[in-house]
Amino acid sequence: MTMHSTVTQGAPPVKITVHDTVFKVLRLLDMAGEELTNAQQAVAECMRDTSMTSSEICRLQKLDLATQTVASAATVLKNLMSLAPAGIKDTVSVARLYEGITLGDVVQVLKGEDTPGHTTTPGEMDLF
Protein backbone atom coordinates (compact mmCIF):
# COMPACT_ATOMS: atom_id res chain seq x y z
CA MET A 1 0.00 0.00 0.00
CA THR A 2 1.38 3.37 -0.92
CA MET A 3 0.02 6.22 1.11
CA HIS A 4 -0.07 9.62 -0.57
CA SER A 5 -0.47 12.88 1.27
CA THR A 6 -1.99 14.70 -1.67
CA VAL A 7 -5.68 14.83 -2.40
CA THR A 8 -6.82 13.56 -5.78
CA GLN A 9 -8.17 16.13 -8.20
CA GLY A 10 -11.76 16.17 -9.31
CA ALA A 11 -15.03 16.73 -7.57
CA PRO A 12 -15.76 14.23 -4.81
CA PRO A 13 -19.19 12.64 -4.74
CA VAL A 14 -21.69 14.83 -2.95
CA LYS A 15 -23.29 11.89 -1.17
CA ILE A 16 -22.26 8.34 -0.39
CA THR A 17 -24.20 5.57 1.29
CA VAL A 18 -23.24 4.37 4.74
CA HIS A 19 -22.66 0.92 3.23
CA ASP A 20 -20.22 2.29 0.63
CA THR A 21 -18.44 4.35 3.27
CA VAL A 22 -17.98 1.35 5.54
CA PHE A 23 -16.77 -0.71 2.59
CA LYS A 24 -14.18 1.93 1.65
CA VAL A 25 -12.94 2.22 5.23
CA LEU A 26 -12.73 -1.57 5.38
CA ARG A 27 -10.54 -1.57 2.28
CA LEU A 28 -8.26 1.03 3.88
CA LEU A 29 -7.98 -1.02 7.06
CA ASP A 30 -7.20 -4.17 5.09
CA MET A 31 -4.44 -2.35 3.18
CA ALA A 32 -3.01 -0.86 6.37
CA GLY A 33 -3.14 -4.26 8.04
CA GLU A 34 -1.17 -5.82 5.19
CA GLU A 35 1.47 -3.10 5.48
CA LEU A 36 1.72 -3.56 9.25
CA THR A 37 2.11 -7.31 8.80
CA ASN A 38 4.85 -6.73 6.21
CA ALA A 39 6.59 -4.37 8.62
CA GLN A 40 6.40 -6.98 11.37
CA GLN A 41 7.97 -9.56 9.07
CA ALA A 42 10.78 -7.17 8.16
CA VAL A 43 11.46 -6.40 11.82
CA ALA A 44 11.43 -10.11 12.68
CA GLU A 45 13.99 -10.81 9.95
CA CYS A 46 16.21 -7.96 11.13
CA MET A 47 16.00 -9.07 14.76
CA ARG A 48 16.51 -12.78 14.13
CA ASP A 49 20.01 -12.97 15.67
CA THR A 50 19.82 -9.90 17.89
CA SER A 51 19.00 -9.66 21.57
CA MET A 52 16.68 -6.87 22.67
CA THR A 53 16.26 -4.82 25.80
CA SER A 54 12.98 -4.68 27.72
CA SER A 55 12.39 -1.19 26.33
CA GLU A 56 12.85 -2.38 22.75
CA ILE A 57 10.50 -5.30 23.33
CA CYS A 58 7.84 -2.92 24.70
CA ARG A 59 8.16 -0.74 21.60
CA LEU A 60 7.76 -3.77 19.35
CA GLN A 61 4.71 -4.85 21.33
CA LYS A 62 3.06 -1.58 20.30
CA LEU A 63 3.57 -2.50 16.63
CA ASP A 64 2.03 -5.90 17.29
CA LEU A 65 -0.90 -4.32 19.15
CA ALA A 66 -1.46 -1.83 16.32
CA THR A 67 -1.49 -4.68 13.80
CA GLN A 68 -4.00 -6.65 15.86
CA THR A 69 -6.18 -3.58 16.41
CA VAL A 70 -6.35 -2.79 12.69
CA ALA A 71 -7.21 -6.43 11.92
CA SER A 72 -9.88 -6.42 14.64
CA ALA A 73 -11.42 -3.17 13.39
CA ALA A 74 -11.55 -4.62 9.87
CA THR A 75 -13.26 -7.74 11.24
CA VAL A 76 -15.84 -5.60 13.06
CA LEU A 77 -16.64 -3.79 9.82
CA LYS A 78 -16.87 -7.10 7.92
CA ASN A 79 -19.26 -8.39 10.58
CA LEU A 80 -21.31 -5.20 10.32
CA MET A 81 -21.48 -5.53 6.53
CA SER A 82 -22.67 -9.15 6.85
CA LEU A 83 -25.73 -8.14 8.86
CA ALA A 84 -28.97 -7.30 7.13
CA PRO A 85 -28.89 -3.85 5.56
CA ALA A 86 -29.29 -1.41 8.39
CA GLY A 87 -30.08 2.25 8.36
CA ILE A 88 -27.85 4.69 10.17
CA LYS A 89 -30.17 4.73 13.20
CA ASP A 90 -30.89 1.00 13.33
CA THR A 91 -29.36 -1.07 16.09
CA VAL A 92 -27.23 -4.18 15.70
CA SER A 93 -26.10 -6.88 18.09
CA VAL A 94 -22.80 -5.92 19.70
CA ALA A 95 -21.97 -9.60 20.15
CA ARG A 96 -22.33 -10.11 16.39
CA LEU A 97 -19.97 -7.21 15.75
CA TYR A 98 -17.14 -8.64 17.82
CA GLU A 99 -17.62 -12.21 16.60
CA GLY A 100 -14.16 -13.61 15.83
CA ILE A 101 -12.33 -10.80 17.65
CA THR A 102 -9.72 -12.00 20.13
CA LEU A 103 -8.32 -8.62 21.16
CA GLY A 104 -10.02 -7.79 24.46
CA ASP A 105 -9.56 -4.02 24.16
CA VAL A 106 -11.55 -3.94 20.92
CA VAL A 107 -14.35 -6.00 22.46
CA GLN A 108 -14.44 -3.68 25.48
CA VAL A 109 -14.70 -0.58 23.28
CA LEU A 110 -17.61 -2.14 21.38
CA LYS A 111 -19.31 -3.00 24.66
CA GLY A 112 -18.89 0.61 25.79
CA GLU A 113 -16.48 -0.29 28.58
CA ASP A 114 -13.36 1.66 29.39
CA THR A 115 -10.26 0.13 27.90
CA PRO A 116 -7.47 -0.74 30.28
CA GLY A 117 -3.97 0.56 29.73
CA HIS A 118 -1.77 -1.63 27.61
CA THR A 119 0.37 -3.17 30.31
CA THR A 120 2.18 -6.17 28.96
CA THR A 121 5.24 -7.51 30.68
CA PRO A 122 8.23 -7.98 28.38
CA GLY A 123 8.76 -11.64 27.71
CA GLU A 124 5.04 -12.43 27.31
CA MET A 125 5.22 -11.79 23.60
CA ASP A 126 6.30 -13.98 20.75
CA LEU A 127 7.67 -11.64 18.14
CA PHE A 128 5.38 -11.66 15.17
What does this entry look like structurally?
The chain is mostly helical and 128 residues long. The chain has one domain. Helix content is 55%, strand content 0%. It is built from four helices and no strands.
Task: Write a brief structural summary.
The protein is mainly α. It is built from 4 helices and no strands. The two termini are 20 Å apart.
Give the helices and strands as they follow along the chain: HHHH
Query: What general form does the structure show?
Result: extended
Q: Give a quick account of the main beta sheet: strands, pairing sense, barrel closure.
A: none
Q: What is the helix content?
A: 40-55%
**Structural class computed from helices and strand pairing:** mainly alpha
- Whole-number mean pLDDT: 79
β content, as a range? under 5%
Rg (C-alpha, Å): 18 Å
How many individual helices? 4
How many domains? The number is 1
Low-confidence runs = 119-125
